[in-house]
TrEMBL record:
Domain of life where this protein originates: Eukaryota
Lineage: Eukaryota, Metazoa, Chordata, Craniata, Vertebrata
Biological process, per Gene Ontology: mitochondrial respiratory chain complex I assembly
Subunit structure: Binds calmodulin. Interacts with NDUFAF3.
Region (Disordered): 21-40
InterPro entries to which the protein is assigned, alphabetical: NDUFAF4
Protein name: NADH dehydrogenase [ubiquinone] 1 alpha subcomplex assembly factor 4
Length: 172
């Protein structure tokens, strides 16, 4: 509703207001400073002659200038333009996977897949004496500090079932 009211005021007498703005005379620009004019040399013919005069001494000096430029030697790359990686990443096969074609088959050394991360966290939680940080680091090709951080800051969920409260339960 507010938009309709403002539109009425905005469009009120639009044509007359537009004609009034168009029919106004254009404002006269401010006078320019004398030195800002482009035809300042027209007042002084000696300046114009000085600009157009050729100086023989400067021309001879210009003819003596000789510039020599050389491109740096072009290096030819061996291998015919193939881009080979500088460092080959070592890969390892993943330990687990039950999703078949969707499973990650190989992972870079120093990294683990999500399934492996959940498995090693669960193994460490269930048997911390067997699955120590050193054994996990050796098993999954990880650094010991990364494994320690992983075991410290990531904890797998535990499922707990609470007995249902029934109104017929005997209170003791």
């Amino acid at each position: 509703m507010g938009g309709r009211v403002t539109r009425v005021f905005r469009t009120f007498n639009v044509e007359n207001r537009a004609r009034r703005e168009i029919s106004k005379e254009k404002p006269t620009p401010a006078p320019r400073h004398r030195t800002a004019r482009l035809d300042a040399t027209a007042d002084h013919p000696e300046v114009k002659q000085e600009i157009l005069r050729k100086d023989d001494r400067l021309l001879t000096l210009l003819k003596d200038v000789y510039v020599e430029s050389r491109d740096p030697p072009v290096r030819v790359k061996d291998g015919g333009g193939e881009h080979l990686p500088c460092k080959q990443e070592e890969k390892r096969l993943t330990k687990l996977g039950h999703l078949g074609a969707l499973d990650v088959k190989e992972v870079s050394k120093g990294k683990i897949s999500i399934v492996e991360a959940l498995t090693l966290l669960n193994n460490h939680k269930l048997h911390p004496q067997i699955w120590t940080a050193e054994k996990i680091a050796a098993e999954y090709s990880l650094e010991l500090k990364d494994v320690n951080s992983l075991l410290e800051f990531f904890i797998p969920f535990t499922v707990q079932e609470f007995p249902k409260k029934t109104p017929k339960a005997i209170k003791s």
